[in-house]
Design brief:
The chain has about 475 residues and is an alpha+beta fold. Helix content is about 55%, strand content about 15%. The structure holds adenosine-5'-diphosphate.
Length: about 475
């Protein structure tokens, strides 16, 4: 603002000075020309008197800086101080013509004999002849150049002064505005024109303050809601956990009661012991899964910086599950990118080796568990442009469409007793979903009852990043796989 006021004021000052200077110069020019004519006129009248008395001898005796021409009534040159041989008729020139007509005449033009701009003054004598005096305009201009130099210096000084004045004006105008405290606007301000602006400021300040209060309120409400939701989920989870733990414990308690009564024969004792073993296995699996999901909830597992070869993780998982699959005649096939020698090439993603193996185990275990005897499981790994994907496809019992989203909920099973018989905890897919989330991976499911299920995990990677990262030694990839 100060800058703008300064520029405009300064520009105005400069313009006024330049225009005044130009006007002054024009007036001065006019005055100098008039003065020059006045001098010529004075000299001409002296020469006229002299000529009338002394004739040509008088003219020849004169010593003057100006050119003197004596012209006859018919325009013929009787005498010329600068050009004695001049014969051209001068009657046609304005100043001579005017002098013959009115007694005197003047004009500025290029001289016929020289090329310079010249001032002429002609005066009619009593005998009808004309005395003409002339002088080059350059002589007048020389006098003017001193004047114009002085004018220029004066203007320059005035421009400097006007710059200082403009600066002071700009500062004085802008100061009250610059010093205005927007947090504490004055009741009345130095410029009534600004009152409206000040009022708008006040309004906006109030608006912003009330919006901030509203936002804070909304944030608190959202946090409260979130806390309530989390509390509800925790209570629900605790209730479910208690319920899930109670079932195998009640069974174990019942079998132990029977064994303790001493009423069972040896065969029954062995059967009950087997039942207790199975139920306690379920309990261990359940507790392990609960620990895992609690760790994920609390963000206790660090996931970010490892480079994991998912081909190796998948192969290790298959090796663990192969005996269980063999028992039911289920074949597990790994399809992964191969090199020229037929061996699998590594496919690296950035994530947690521990969580990735956990996910693969749960998905492959489900593909075997919920398969028909003699069925197939295909584990396929592919690198795509922006991600690496692994899919677990089975030819098993499938999941009805209505249940496909729900199976990712904690403790949700399509067929509770079937899952229990197979040793399921109802937590496997929720661990998969949660583990995928913390590694920025996504999970997709396709399933049709009695046809089979395919669950695909997409691990996003930046190929350049993944290539740039140094692949960890094979040993470091062999994290412990804890069955759920
Ligand atoms: P569970 O320990 O019971 O297997 P999950 O969370 O792993 O728990 O799976 C939840 C439910 O989803 C299972 O009980 C089962 O009904 C269904 N399910 C999961 N995977 C498959 C699959 N590959 N084929 C058919 N049903 C499946």
């Amino acid at each position: 603002m100060t800058k703008k006021i300064f520029s405009y004021t300064f520009l105005l000052g400069v313009m006024v000075l330049l225009i005044s200077g130009a006007i002054f110069f024009c007036l001065q020019y006019r005055q100098t020309i008039d003065d020059a004519y006045e001098t010529l006129r004075g000299e001409a009248s002296c020469v006229k008197s002299g000529v009338m008395i002394g004739g040509i001898e008088y003219l020849e005796s004169l010593d003057t800086k100006n050119r003197i021409t004596w012209i006859g009534a018919d325009g013929s040159v009787l005498y010329d101080s600068d050009y004695p041989d001049l014969t051209a008729n001068q009657g046609g020139f304005k100043e001579v013509h005017q002098a013959l007509e009115t007694g005197s005449g003047s004009g500025i033009r290029r001289s016929s004999s020289g090329r310079a701009q010249t001032m002429y003054y002609g005066l009619l004598c009593g005998d009808g002849t004309v005395v003409r005096l002339s002088r080059p305009v350059s002589a007048v201009r020389r006098a003017l150049s001193v004047v114009s130099f002085m004018i220029s210096v004066t203007i320059l000084v005035l421009i400097l002064i006007s710059a200082l004045i403009a600066f002071r004006i700009a500062k004085t105008i802008a100061q009250p505005i610059n010093e205005m405290d927007l947090d504490d606007l004055p009741e009345s301000n130095p410029y009534p024109e600004l009152q409206q602006l000040v009022e708008r400021f006040e309004e906006q300040k109030e608006e912003i303050a009330s919006q901030a209060v509203e936002r804070e309120q909304l944030r608190r409400e959202a946090m409260e809601q979130q806390a309530q939701e989390q509390g509800r989920m925790r209570r629900e989870f605790s209730a479910n956990v208690s319920h899930e733990l109670k079932t195998p414990l009640t069974s174990i308690n019942g079998f132990a009661e029977l064994m303790r009564s001493g009423l069972c024969d040896e065969e029954k004792m062995i059967e009950f012991a087997g039942d207790i073993y199975r139920e306690s296995q379920r309990l261990i699996a359940l507790v392990n899964d609960i620990i895992r999901i609690s760790e994920l909830d609390e963000g206790a597992i660090h996931t970010t910086t490892e480079k994991v070869d998912i081909v190796k993780a998948a192969q290790d998982t298959i090796d663990i599950l192969q005996p269980a699959a063999d028992k039911r005649g289920i074949s597990i096939t790994l399809q992964a990118p191969c090199g020229e020698d037929g061996s699998c090439l590594p496919v690296r993603v950035v994530g947690s080796d521990y969580l990735i193996r956990e996910m693969f185990y749960n998905l492959c275990d489900n593909a075997v568990k919920y398969n028909h005897d003699g069925g197939d499981v295909f584990v396929t790994i592919r690198e795509e442009e922006k991600d690496a994907l692994i899919s677990f496809s089975d030819t098993g019992i499938g999941i009805p469409e209505a249940e496909q989203d729900r199976v990712f909920e904690r403790f949700y099973r399509v067929d509770k007793s079937h899952s229990r018989t197979l040793g399921g905890t109802g937590l496997g897919l929720s661990i998969v979903k949660h583990a995928a989330q913390v590694q920025n991976a996504t999970v997709e499911m396709e399933s049709a009852p009695d046809k089979g299920t395919t669950i695909t995990v997409h691990f996003p990677f930046d190929r350049e990043d993944a290539d740039a990262l140094e692949f960890a030694a094979d040993e470091s990839m062999q994290g412990a796989l804890i069955p759920s």
